[in-house]
Every structure is written in C-alpha cells, then in structure tokens.
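// run 5 | inverse folding | seed 20
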C-alpha cells in the first residue's frame, strides 16, 4: 500500500502500449502534478481530439460526437 501511495505522489505510472502516441501524450498531460496539468481548453485543443464546431472527433475513431449532446 505504501508503494502505491509513493507512485501516486511521485506520478509514476506506465501506459499500455496499445494506446496511440497522441493518446498517450494526452493521458500523460492529465496524469501530472496539478501545477503542470493541462486545462480543459487544452484538452479540447489536443491533437488527439479534433474540435470542429460542435463536433468532437477522436483521432482514430470511426464516429463523431456532437458536443451539444455529450456535454
């Protein structure tokens, strides 16, 4: 249990290799210390997500979601 706490405090983790580079970059940007964590706006502007008007497209996904229906 102590090692889990240390891993959380020191932001030590590993991501599955199945994730794309862009997705891993986004997740890593979220799993960081609060002072360096990206904002909600930066998430929406991240290269793994594509915002086109009210539509959100995830890189590599086959469908587009309307933001007006999901948020």
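// decoded
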């Amino acid at each position: 249990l102590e090692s889990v706490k240390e891993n959380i405090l020191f932001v030590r983790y590993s991501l599955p290799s199945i994730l794309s580079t862009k997705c891993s970059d986004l997740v890593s940007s979220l799993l960081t210390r609060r002072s360096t964590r990206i904002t909600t706006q930066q998430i929406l502007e991240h290269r793994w997500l594509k915002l086109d008007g009210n539509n959100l497209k995830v890189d590599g996904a086959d469908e587009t979601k309307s933001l007006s229906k999901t948020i």
